[in-house]
């Protein structure tokens, strides 16, 4: 009887991991197109809100990224600044609590390199890039391909 419980538990864990991986694959693909149009950005925001595993740090980083990408399509500069500050603070806290998660460091790096310099959100660019370069080959091929498609490593 115990062997059946163990097999069932393994099955549940594998199913959870596969589902989580598929959701993250969809997010990565949507992220690549999000800044190209307002509709793509809306689709990305919707996907981040409808994805399971809302407590996953990587998903939280994609949600923050979606909010920051949406700034491209907002005209009010005061509103933009508030949203930017709120979400970059969230991202920094997320990384502080999960410093070894490469993908969230990549997202911060991409946000910093694409943010206007006057916003001063660039203090971790070198640190993040070094971390990414030192650890990218420890990730699976899907994540490596995503990273190589978004940066010049």
Strand count, sense and barrel status of the largest sheet are: none
CA-CA gap between termini: 51 Å
Shape: globular
Give the helix/strand class: mainly alpha
Q: Give start-end ranges of low-pLDDT stretches.
A: 6-20
Q: What pattern of helices and strands is seen along the backbone?
A: HHHHHHH
Strand content: under 5%
The tally of beta strands, per DSSP, is: 0
Rg estimate, integer Å: 17 Å
The level of helicity is over 70%
Number of helices: 7
- State mean pLDDT (0 to 100 scale): 86
Write the layout of secondary structure elements.
Elements: H1 2-34, H2 38-50, H3 57-69, H4 77-97, H5 102-114, H6 125-135, H7 141-150
Helix pairs in contact: 1-2, 1-3, 2-3, 3-4, 3-5, 5-6
Question: What does this protein look like?
Answer:
With 153 residues, the chain is mainly alpha-helical. 75% of the residues lie in helices and 0% in strands. It has seven helices and no strands. The protein has helices at residues 2-34, 38-50, 57-69, 77-97, 102-114, 125-135, 141-150.
